[in-house]
Amino acid sequence: MKIRSHSESHIVELDDGSRWQIYPGDVDLTLNWRPETDLNLIASDDEISSHALVDGGARVRVIPEGQSWPVDEVRTALRKES
Q: pTM of the full predicted structure?
């Protein structure tokens, strides 16, 4: 899939029309994404996200736009990542 829009750092819209919220700890992995970037959307059994976008070497956790992140799990994960 290709990127249709990535005007907000935490939201990406794919060429199939789906819109995804990017996990706050993974936003830095998306900084080089361009419209021609080829992404694969995969289901994830991660406790934080339902899906992931994969571009070659990077795996970015995402949830559908409009859903809420699990606050406690995100706080715990962000503490571990810093």
A: 0.88
Give the model confidence (pLDDT) of 30-72 as tens digits: 988 988 999 999 999 888 999 999 998 889 999 999 999 998 8
Nearest CA to 15 out of 31, 35, 42 is that of 35
Query: What's the CA gap between 12 and 75, in Å, rounded?
Result: 22
Q: Sheet with 58-64: list strands edge to edge.
A: 3-8, 11-14, 19-22, 58-64, 51-55, 40-43
Let me know: does 39 contact 54? Beta carbons within 8 Å.
yes
User: CB-hemisphere CA count at 13 Å for 9?
Assistant: 8
Would you state the torsion angle of the CA atoms of residues 10, 11, 12, 16, taken in this order, to the nearest 10 degrees?
160
pLDDT value, residue 16:
96
